[in-house]
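Re: weekly structure request thread

Next one in the queue (199 aa):
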Amino acid sequence: MKILIVGASGTIGQAVEANLKAHHEIISANYANGDVKVDLGDPESIRSMFKAVGQVDAVISTAGVAAFSGLDDLTDLDFQTALNNKLMGQINLLRIGKSSINKGGSITLTSGVLSREPMHGSSVISMANGALESFVKAAALEIDSVRFNVVAPVFVKETMAMMGMDTGSGLSANDTAKAYIAAVTGNMHGQTLDAPNYL
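Done, posted below.
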């Protein structure tokens, strides 16, 4: 398959690419580097990316920007960035990109466990994640030409270690990647795939 990975330079994106590149053609897309550049917050940038890449069999997004901060410390810009980038950026990958997916192909987006298991500081991320999961579930009722799903990772061990957190409750990026592979190679549609369920 020809697979476009948006956010390929991130911790999860690198693991997804590493697990797929032996058997599939990978095109990497990132904000600052990769085979093609894309700004998720800009619909025209997304259109330009798909125009440059052409038809693909699958799109995987492991991208999306959202602030982690206490509710009283979040600014209007923090909320707008999460809405424009993590939420609408990924929704626009589906809206704009579905016509670039070959028959039988798929689009896989990324939310996160904070949609259903929030914690202090997660309000803006939980908002975007929950909205994305609801969108995918509802949009699947109207679109059946392309399969699309959302993967909900838990905290990634590598990121936790970088932040000085206890990694005991986390999942490695490599194990997290298994949920994305299941979404691409399976037949589910309109589902939220919780990463720990695919070990």
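The beta strands are 2-6, 25-30, 36-37, 56-61, 101-110, 147-152, 192-194. The helical segments are 11-20, 43-53, 76-97, 123-139, 157-162, 173-185.
Next request, please.
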